[in-house]
Specification:
The structure is a homotrimer of 353-residue chains.
Chain A lengths: L7 E4 L9 E5 L2 E7 L5 E5 L13 E3 L2 E3 L6 E2 L5 E3 L16 E4 L2 E4 L24 E9 L3 H9 L4 H4 L7 H5 L2 E6 L2 E11 L3 H9 L8 E10 L3 E10 L12 E14 L2 E10 L6 H31 L12 H18 L1 H10 L1
Antiparallel strand pairs in A: 1-10, 2-3, 3-4, 5-6, 6-7, 7-8, 9-10, 11-17, 12-13, 13-14, 14-15, 15-16, 16-17
Chain lengths: 353, 353, 353
Amino acid sequence: MFPKNAWYVACTPDEIAVKPLGRRICNEKIVFYRGPEGRVAALEDFCPHRGAPLSLGTVEDGKLVCGYHGLVMGCDGKTESMPNQRVQGFPCIKSFPVEERYGFIWVWPGDPEKADPALIHHLEWAESPDWAYGGGLYHIACDYRLMIDNLMDLTHETYVHASSIGQKEIDEAPVHTRVEGEKVVTSRFMEGVMAPPFWRAALRGNGLADDVPVDRWQICRFSPPSHVLIEVGVAHAGKGGYDADATHKAGSIVVDFITPETDTSIWYFWGMARNFKPGDEELTETIRVGQGKIFSEDLEMLEQQQQNLLAYPERALLKLNIDAGGVQSRRILDRIIAAEREPSALLIKGAAS
Amino acid sequence: MFPKNAWYVACTPDEIAVKPLGRRICNEKIVFYRGPEGRVAALEDFCPHRGAPLSLGTVEDGKLVCGYHGLVMGCDGKTESMPNQRVQGFPCIKSFPVEERYGFIWVWPGDPEKADPALIHHLEWAESPDWAYGGGLYHIACDYRLMIDNLMDLTHETYVHASSIGQKEIDEAPVHTRVEGEKVVTSRFMEGVMAPPFWRAALRGNGLADDVPVDRWQICRFSPPSHVLIEVGVAHAGKGGYDADATHKAGSIVVDFITPETDTSIWYFWGMARNFKPGDEELTETIRVGQGKIFSEDLEMLEQQQQNLLAYPERALLKLNIDAGGVQSRRILDRIIAAEREPSALLIKGAAS
Amino acid sequence: MFPKNAWYVACTPDEIAVKPLGRRICNEKIVFYRGPEGRVAALEDFCPHRGAPLSLGTVEDGKLVCGYHGLVMGCDGKTESMPNQRVQGFPCIKSFPVEERYGFIWVWPGDPEKADPALIHHLEWAESPDWAYGGGLYHIACDYRLMIDNLMDLTHETYVHASSIGQKEIDEAPVHTRVEGEKVVTSRFMEGVMAPPFWRAALRGNGLADDVPVDRWQICRFSPPSHVLIEVGVAHAGKGGYDADATHKAGSIVVDFITPETDTSIWYFWGMARNFKPGDEELTETIRVGQGKIFSEDLEMLEQQQQNLLAYPERALLKLNIDAGGVQSRRILDRIIAAEREPSALLIKGAAS
């Protein structure tokens, strides 16, 4: 139950630096590697000769060589050669549209004809020298929508991340959710609160006092198929909050690309982009390690929640105001998935309405 | 295939001392914790908000707080509060009758209306200062009835526990099985035998010579749903055996509470109660460690037996005289289970007979 | 999908030296042990009393004693005795024809009446003092036919075993496959090539120069149900190749007995028989360790290939000339399996053809 005609983050460049990478995405077994001129390529991870996984092979001169019997595969899914064989009649394997952009490899697991690179999520911060980014990858055994719910309702920070970014005022501050076309925005503002440990460290890292009241904000932006970018930050109280001058605040964007592996497992690419001290690599690493630890606290909860939902499939879950971000995101996903499955039905319905 | 209207041992108090405990019992996922005034509570391990396991939460002032978004659950299964939410309309979750008694937490996974604490298995030794108890818990992947069979036929000691409590004379001594209402008693008496290592140690521990012939007894008492208490002991030969004066014997009660987790797995609470040197905690620990080692010898056998029975479901097993204890226990269980499923059918049948 | 009326290698004698061995072969759970006079015996691994695995028992005076309650089983599957029991009416368990020969235990998992020890694969090298043998056992999660394919197409050496026995010339040399009744022979000869590392070491081990061109040969012989014996070797170039005098060459027989455990897993007995320096046990061990390392390189490939085939069951694999050995072997297996299932149909078909 996920859109297939969409650009998903598949991996990061370091994962294909030395050898091909086999990764299941949206139930498709795919091999990623650097093809001719170092351009990334994505193919079915299935050698047409005897079904060996091509990801166990090697890349030679931009060509993927099967590690079992040496079949040489082109990045279009056509066999180029094989020792002592005529390969013209060999069946093709699927090739997947794939792009490298913003420091990620993006794959389109659905209909290749619909794959327009211009549809890739635009990430301003990834193109600007004023920003730095650090992140990581977790594999989690849960439906990708449980992670969207998680990120679109940050009240969980108070409980799951009590010792780092959680604070009681998150629960208490009203949350606003609005739908903008295919996007959902959930925002929360807290005024005159004391910053929790993670943000005190960020203030100090930014050369600001950490023992005075701050205004804190969280603006979660969902966009299909499964991206949640969250503007977060604190400013010394009374300086304008979210709109305060940069000299009074510390902020960043929490980056979450949630790529379904199967119906009940995900590749979770998490990270943080910040626009202060972008050249400080040590700070980038410190933040990355800290964020990795905080985000790992969600894993057990999400996996056990998934197990509970599988055990009690008939139970209806509550949809409270705090859940509105996830609920609205799921509605958009439902429409997209329905349109993929029955494009004509949707058109008719659209005409009638 | 187990009675649900029954009191089962769910856990021991130390397991809920620090945080809630999630445990599946008779296929029900249950969270155990200490509620108001320290009284134990048992609820479905499923938060009505988004299905998170409540066992990952915390207890605050006797209330279970969901570790995901802070829903506060009462011990009756009704949500008490949630930050910034009206909770009156929240669906209830099941609460399970639960009692703390004799050093154990007992749960009733079936119909709460039938749960009478007076039905909890009465354990005299657990209430008397003349007795000491030590025990432990094993998780075993087998049908609970295989463990009942195991304990109601102690000829296995000769083979499984050859180096500790087994001895050839167990096989050779006749066994007597009788049914007393819903209870089954299987007994065996050996006269003038040499005590095996465990019992020689027990004689020494009790200040008695260990190198003289003894009379040995084993009296296994099954009671539903799945308890087997076994009186075991040795007395210097010719002093009256089971009825000998306390100064001539060493005896104890082997305690076995077998709680089904699923149809093919159990929580096995094992222990030993003794009425000599009850204040000697070091002796309690020595016995506990020794018993734990002996009882662990059954695990592989039971789990592989279970695998064999699943692989050959059509095979009829033998029911020998030594198996009578298990066979009679299963008959009682079958009647109880049938009555739970079709109470009226049972009444009619009862009237006709 | 494997012949059951056939002799398979079940284990090696060291595996039953100390206690019984439980092993699943062709989906049958079997216990192997040394019965009367040390003769090997094979029985269903299922005690007729309560279904315990007999492989957890002990052998006493050539009799298998169940480790649960002491039932004494004869090597014909009839219970011989049990403490205090009359056993005449006990149901029998299956006994399997089993033979010890050539340093292996062979079992016949099918119809015992058809089990003729004369049908055991004759291994000349195993009976001659001029030969030495060393080998090992791997458990691999793949269909046994994938391993037959692997061994009947050695072009994979170039890719899977690039650093030891692979070399580019394997791909380039033509391969010849012929069927001889129920046997398949695939052979390849390379002339005037430089030996790869494993064979350079073998030349040195045999007192021959390792830095001169050699003629290399590979003759793979499949015989049902699942044996592949491969004559391999190198001779100094121009000395007659395969037919060169022993003083100019180093050769051996790669031994592969592939025993199905289930439809998708195998017990893979691999080894090497050589007819030079047969008394040099240190050399035997050196070769064994080296071969074990090389052969372990196939495991991941085979297991992932199996996973791919299960994921894409509808895909037809290619059957190239290099695959002819495997393809022909599978045809023979298909005929044998069909004949086992419908012997009369085969006779009629045979009469009509």
